[in-house]
Amino acid sequence: MRTLQEAAHEASACTKCRLSVGRTQVVYGTGNADADLMFIGEGPGYYEDKQGEPFVGAAGQLLNRMLEEIGVRRADVYIANVIKCLRYNARIQLADGSWDRIGRLVRSRYDGMVMSVDEDGHLVPRRVVGWFESPLGGRRVFRLRYRSAKNAGAGRVGVQLTGDHPVLTDRGWIAVQDLQPGDRIATGQGLSPLGRDVVVGSVLGDGHLAAGSAYLSFGHSERQAGYALFKANVLAELHPRVRGLSVAAVAGGETQYGIVQVRTLAHRALGILRKDFYGPKKRVPSWLGKDLNLRMLAIWFMDDGYMRIRPHRQPLAEIAAVGLAERDLSYLIKGLARLGLPATNRRGRIHFDVLTTKVLSVLLAPYIPPSMRFKLHPEIAAAIPFDPSRWEPEPAEVMYDDVDAQDVTNQRRTDTTYYCIDVDGTHNFVTAGGVVHNCRPPGNRDPLPEEVDACTPWLREQIALIEPRVLVTLGNFATRFMLDKPVSISRVRGQRFPFEGRTVIPTFHPAAILRGGGEASTQMAALRSDFLEIKRALAEMPEPVEEQLGLF
Q1: How many CB atoms lie within 10 A of CB 519?
Q2: Is residue 278 exposed (0-12), middle (13-18) or buried (19+ Cβ within 10 Å)?
Q3: DSSP secondary structure letters along 10-78
Q4: Rg (alpha carbons) of the chain, rounded to whole number
Q5: CA distance 86 to 99
Q6: How many CB atoms lie within 10 A of CB 128?
Q7: Is residue 520 pLDDT above 70, yes or no?
Q8: Domains and CATH numbers, the chain
């Protein structure tokens, strides 16, 4: 049988999967070749890739500390792991909103900030920490765009990238070559939930999204100037402009009353929404049947709603919806019903009964500013005050749009080198064609099946050569891989599982502890308990038996 060093040397030249394209070097493993204790993680991150050694960052420091607490030196254990590019002129969005070519960023080793998407879907600036160039080789090439991308020249804005490159979709990270019709990709553009709600409510009401250069505009009479300014204020992220106008009641007649006109700057996110709300004429997108919320409804009701107050009768609410097709009205009525507001359609107006009118006012009262309280049920308006916190600014969230991915592999091209960057923390970046992942996957995503298949023989041989008495799996993925079961780390951590005369003990991945937020202290206590169990297992286990390893 060959030595561990010989196996590591052969693995260093492995090209069995796509990870070989973006890596700096193979992170084979490190430690005592005769160790009784072996740790198995998922895959190398940025710093591991640079240094060629697993667990060298903050997670590695925590692992070292846990080993010290049970009287084990890191040098006495062995640590191993279970375990794509763009055309030069692909445009990347920088943190200041400008765009630059990825080839220039790579060639100049740009280490500034680019736009990215965090795990909560927020658009955030992140620093570039790595640069990659790789030959195209035999990889396929795709042109990636989304439906509402702005027209430029002969076609829409997009990017060309290799087919193995993962992009963010509404069903997760998917390689471009595996995208399917109907997939929606993250555009890299977005609004805050507040901005989106106000825009949607306004378009349902008095607002309009312009074609071409997408901007939102609306106007209100000077009697409702306070309301117009209120909406302009909550739409601050779209940089609205406000102006007063005098208009005539009849075209060509004398000036009779003033209006307040509000118009936002053009924004790509508004172009995405416009595609949903406009075809040959204005329409209601079907998703409002499930996504209509109280902020959208509050704006819509303040724009087009009316409270009928008659002597000796209970108030009744209604919303004007003239000009909408029956199907559009059905989506709105479905959305209202989901909010607990049953309604009926009568000749283009949505009506609420007496009880529902009260419920409507109760739900909307916290959202209605002083200038528009007259639209509420009088009793409710007096009892439930306006709550300004319902309209506080929120971070922008990425929006999704229908994908357009075309295989252009056979088109004539002069590019033979493709480029990628690594982004700190989030490991993705915004391009003119959507949000794409780093070439080399970081430790925060599970390796793909083909990547696991390529790496499995190396891990199998490592275990056979080292012959540890105790194997410790770090995190969900490594645990599921070793136990070959869809288990949860929180349920199996600290337990012992037999493995060919050895013992497997699962525990939390140190990186999960470091980003655990409010649960970090609880997880840290569990990690310490698991390491004490590891110490006991080492003391109790007999020397390993000599036998063929056959569970892979």
Answers
A1: 13
A2: middle
A3: HHTT--SSTHHHH-SS---EEE-TT-SEEEEES---HHHHHHTSSS-SHHHHHHHHHHHHTT--GGGSE
A4: 30
A5: 15
A6: 21
A7: no
A8: 4-84+445-540 (3.40.470.10), 91-190+397-437 (2.170.16.10), 193-391 (3.10.28)
CA angle 175, 404, 430 (to 5 degrees): 65
Q: What is the pTM of this model?
A: 0.60
In one-letter notation, the amino acid at residue 275 is K
Backbone angles phi, psi at 5, to 5 degrees: -65, -40
Strand, helix or coil for residue 115:
strand
CA atoms of 31 and 466, how far apart (whole Å) = 10
pLDDT score, position 443: 42
Confidence of residue 10 (pLDDT cuts 50, 70, 90): low
Count, in order, helices (H) and strands (E) of the chain.
Answer: 18, 29
Average pLDDT over residues 130-142: 78
Three-class secondary structure of residue 485 per DSSP: coil
The two tokens of residue 103 are 């080839």
For the segment 166-207, what is each residue's pLDDT rounded down to a tens digit?
A: 899 998 888 888 898 889 999 988 999 999 999 999 999 999
Running DSSP on this structure, what letter comes out for residue 542?
Answer: P
Q: Which of 101, 117, 128, 103 lies closest to 189 in space, CA to CA?
A: 117
pLDDT in tens, 14-45: 444 444 444 444 445 678 888 899 888 765 54
Please give the average per-residue pLDDT across 523-539, as a whole number. 92
| Residue 151 CA neighbour count, 13 Å, CB half | 6
Q: Kindly tell me if the per-residue pLDDT of 548 is higher than 80.
A: no
Q: What number of residues does the chain have?
A: 552
Query: Which element (helix H / strand E) includes 112?
Result: none
Proportion of the chain above pLDDT 70, given as a percent: 79
Q: Write out the DSSP string of 287-328.
A: THHHH--HHHHHHHHHHHEEEE--TTS--EEEEE-TT--HHH
Nearest partner of 203 among 286, 313, 283, 86, judged by Cα = 283
Is residue 36 within 8 A of residue 495, CB to CB? The reply is no
